[in-house]
Amino acid sequence: MTKxxxxxxxxxxxxxLLVILFTFLMMRQIKGNPFRKTERAVPASIQANLNRKFHxxxxxxVQYADYVKGVFTLDLGPSLVLRNQxxxxxxxxxxxxxxxxxxxxxxxxxxxxxxxxMIAALRANKPADYGxxxxxxxxxxVPSFLVATLLIYYFAVKWDVGxxxxxxxxxxxxxxxxxxxxxxxxxxxxxxxxxxxLETLQQDYVRTAKAKGLRPQRVVGLHVLRNxxxxxxxAAGPLLGAVITGSFIIETIFAIPGIGRYYxxxxxxxxxxxxxxxxxxxxxxxxxxxxxxxxLYGFLDPRTREART
Amino acid sequence: MPLLEVxxxxxxxxxxxxxxxxxxxxxxxxxxxxxxxxxxxxxxxxSVTALSIMGLIPKPPARIVSGSIVxxxxxxxxxxxxxxxxxxxxxxxxxxxxxMTSLNPTLTIGTQITEALRRHLGMSxxxxxxxxxxLLEEVRIPNAKTRLGDYPHRYSGGMRQRVMVAIALxxxxxxxxxxxPTTALDVTVxxxxxxxxxxxxxxxxxxMILITHDMGVVAxxxxxxxVMYAGQVVEQAATLELFDHPxxxxxxxLLGALPSLEGAGGREARLxxxxxxxxxxxxxxxxxxxxxRCPYAHLGDYCTVEQPELRELRPGxxxxxxxxxxxxxxxxx
Amino acid sequence: MAVNPQQEELRERAVxxxxxxxGVAAAGAPVRQxxxxxxxWYRYRANRAAVIAAVLFLVLLAYVIFVPIFSPxxxxxxxxxxxxxxxxxxxxxxxxxxxxxxxxxAALGGRISIGIGFAATIAIMGIGxxxxxxxxxxxxxxxxxxxRFLDALYGLPYLPFAIIVTQLFQTVNFWVMVIALTxxxxxxxxxxxxxxxxxxxxxxxxxAARAVGARWYRILGRHLLxxxxxxxxxxxxxxxxxxxxxxxxxxxxxxxxxxxKASWGSLxxxxxxVYLAHPSMxxxxxxxxxxxxxxxxxxxxxLRDALDPRTRET
Lengths: 309, 333, 314
What we know:
The structure holds three protein chains of three kinds.
Chain A (H helix, E strand, L loop, with lengths): L1 H30 L12 H11 L5 H13 L14 H36 L4 H15 L2 H15 L12 H31 L2 H8 L4 H38 L5 H10 L3 H29 L1 H7 L1
Helix pairs in contact in A: 1-11, 4-5, 4-7, 4-9, 5-7, 6-7, 6-9, 7-9, 8-9, 9-10, 9-11, 10-11, 11-12
Chain B lengths: L3 E12 L2 E13 L4 E5 L6 H9 L7 E10 L2 E2 L5 H7 L4 E4 L13 H13 L3 H14 L5 H4 L9 H13 L5 E5 L7 H18 L2 E6 L2 H7 L2 E6 L2 E7 H6 L4 H8 L54 E4 L2 E3 L5 H8 L1
Parallel strand pairs in B: 3-8, 3-9, 6-7, 7-8
Antiparallel strand pairs in B: 1-2, 1-4, 4-5, 9-10, 10-12, 11-12
Helix pairs in contact in B: 3-4, 4-6, 6-7
Chain C lengths: L4 H10 L18 H14 L1 H23 L31 H37 L1 H15 L3 H10 L6 H12 L1 H15 L2 H8 L4 H37 L11 H9 L7 H28 L7
C-alpha cells in the first residue's frame, strides 16, 4: 500500500509539469511575448519585475523552467494589476476562505446527500423515494446561481431568519453560501447512492448476510453501505472540480472574499499572472483530490489494494 | 414428528402482466437427520421454495399467497421479521449456488464468519474468533488462523464454498438448505464439497435440503427425493425407489438424460432431452403441466383438461401423473 | 467418505450429469440490424419519463426555433420606457432593463445555449471517437501512453481551463465558446470510446473477422464503431447538461458570449442584480436551463435502457 501511495505521488509530478506547460503556453499565447504588447500599460516597476521574473529575453522553455521552479518553490510571481501584491499574497489571504467554504459545502453534500440516497433506495418506488429523487433531480438540474438567489430571496430577505445576504464573517453568514455551493454535490451524491445501493441490495452477499439472520441495521449499515460508498468516493474527485467551478459563482453572489472571486476578477482585469497562478493552484487541488480519492478507494476495496501493491 | 413440514406452499411473483406462480402448491416433509433432495430444471421453483422457507424471497414482487411452513411446531409464514431473523442462520442455515458472489468482497472472511456467531450465540469477539478458526479447520481450510484475516478474493471458488459451509454450520443449525451448492464449481471440486457436506451433516446431526438439477448429486447424497416441475411436486419417493422405479414421465426423462457409463459405449450414449419447454407460469391452464411435453398424453385425455392429483402409488411413493410407468406397464401387458 | 453403499451403487449409475437442463432453448440467434433499432424504440417508448422528457424537449426546441421568427419585437432594440415590465399578455416573460421582450430574448438565448451545447458535445464526441479508437484499437504501448496523457489532463480543473481558452480570442462568440468547452471536456468521451472498443475487440465476431483476414479499417469501421453508436448517442445526452451548465456559468460570471448577444446564462446575470424587484428575470432563464438539463437527463436514461439493455438496472 505504501508503495502504491509513493508511486502515485511520484506520478503527480509529470502530471503537474504537463498542466503547468499547458497553462504556460496558453498564457503566452494570450500575453504575446513580451508583455509590452498587451493593451494595458504595465507600470515600469512591474515591467522590470516581470522581466526579472520571467526572463523575457530567454527562449520559452527557459522561461517555462523558471516558472516551474517558481511553482515548486511556492513563488507564483507578482500581480500585474494589484500593485505591491504577489500572487502568493492573494492565495495566502483568500484561499483559506475558499477552502472553508468548500469544506462546508462538501460536508453539507455528504450529510444530506448520502442519507437522502439511502432513504430513496430502501424505500424504492414509494413516496419517500419520489420525494428524495425530486429534490435530487432539482438540485442536479437547477444552476447554482438560481439556488443561491432563491436562498437569499427567501431566507435572508422575505422570511429574514437572521442570515445576512452576503459576507463571510459570522457563522450565520456562512450557512447560505455553503448550502448553495453544496446543493449540486448533494444531489449528485443522493442519485449516486440510490443507484449503487439498489444495485448492492441485489447482490448475493447481501442475501447471505440476511441468511445469517443479521439484523437489518447491520445488513444495511455494514454489508450494503460499505459497498455502496465505493462509487461515492470515486465520484468525489470529479465533484471537486464542480465545487471549484461553483465557488466562482457563489463567491461572486455572496461577495465572499475567496480566491474564486479573485480568479474571475483577474480574468476580467487581464491580470495574467494571477489567472495563471490560480489556475495552477486549482490544478494542484484537483490532482491531490484525485490522489486522496485513489488512496481512500484502496482502503475501501481490498481487491484493488492488493492489485496495486 | 418431521422437523420441517411444508404444506401447499404457493409463492407468486407479481408482474405487470399478472401473477407468475413460481411455487404452486408444494408440500413435503423433512425428517430430522435426513437429506431431502429437490430436483428439477431451472425455473421449476425449487430455489424459490428454499427462499420461501428462509423468508428471503424478494418482497415485492414475490409473496407467499397461501400454505404453511412449519418448523419445529412454528409456522414460519406467520412469524414476524424479527422472529424469523432469530431462526435464520441459527436453526436453519443456507448455502447458495455461487460462492464467487455470495461473500462480501470488502469484509474479511473472519468478520463474515464471526458475525453470525456473535449475533446468535452471543459470543465475545475473542470467542467468536477462536470458534471461527475451528470452523475453518472443520471445512479443511489450511492455515485457518492466518486465513481468517484474508478477503474473499484470496480464496478459490471451492474454498469460498467451504467458507460458506463453515458460516452455515457455525451456529449448529438443525436444518441446512443447500441450493445448488456445487453447480458453479469445477467438476473436480464438486465431489469434495458434497462429501464434506455429507460428513458434516452426519457429525452435526442436521437435516438437509439439497436442491439440484443434477440427478447424480441426488443419487450421491439424498435419502428422499422430490421432483419438481413448473412450480409443483410431480414425484416424491425414497431415492433408491425413485431411481429403480421412476413413475412420472418427467422423472424418467430426467434419469434418461443422465449420461451412462454402463450403456452401449460411453461415447455413443446420448443425452436424451425432452422436446418442448416448461409452460408459462403466468396463468397456466388447468391441465397437467407436463402434458404438452408428455409422450403418453394424447388429445382427449383427461389430463389435458384437468390437473392430476398427487397420489400415493406405493407406500411413500407419490406421483402427479395420469400415466405413471407402472400403470402404463399394466395396460401394455 | 461418508456415503452409504446403496448410494454408492446409485452413484455409479448416475455419475456426473451435465449441467444443462433438458429442453433449454437455443439463445443468441443473430438479430437483424433493423429490428435492433425497432426493439430499442419499443423499449424507449416503455419508459414513460423518457417519453415525457422527449416531448418536453421538442416543445423547448420549437419555442427556441419559432418564437424569434414570429415575434413582433426586435430583440436588440432599446426602449427605456418599457424597461422592467412584469409578465403580461404582450410580454409573457416581461421585459429587461432596456425594455427588450424577454420572451423573444430567452428564445434567442436558448438558440445560443442549446446550439453551443450540441455543437460542443458533438465536437467532444468527434475528438473522443478519434482518440479513443486509436488508443483502444492499436492498444499496447501507444494505448498506455495515450491513457497516461489523458490521466494527466484529468487533473485539469475544467472551467478555469475553458476560461483561459476563451481569453485566447479577441471577442468571445458562439464558436469560441464551443472551442473552449470542447477543449476543456473531451477527455471523458475518449475514455468511454476506448473502453467500448477494447471490450468489443474481445468479442468472438471480431476475432472471427480477424481470422478470415479482414483489414483493420474494415474491422474498425464495420464491427467496432457501429457497435459503439448506441453508447455514443447516450453519451451525447449525458454530456449535454455539463456543457450547457458550463456555458451558463461562464456567461453568468461575465466571461461568456459578448453582448448584445445573450445566452440563458447571461440573461440570468442581467436578472441577478434586480432579483428583489424583478425575480422573474433570473428565474425564467434558470428554469429554462433546468428544463433542458432534466430533459437531457431523462432522455439519456431512456436511451441507455433502450440501446444498451445490458446495463439495465432491473
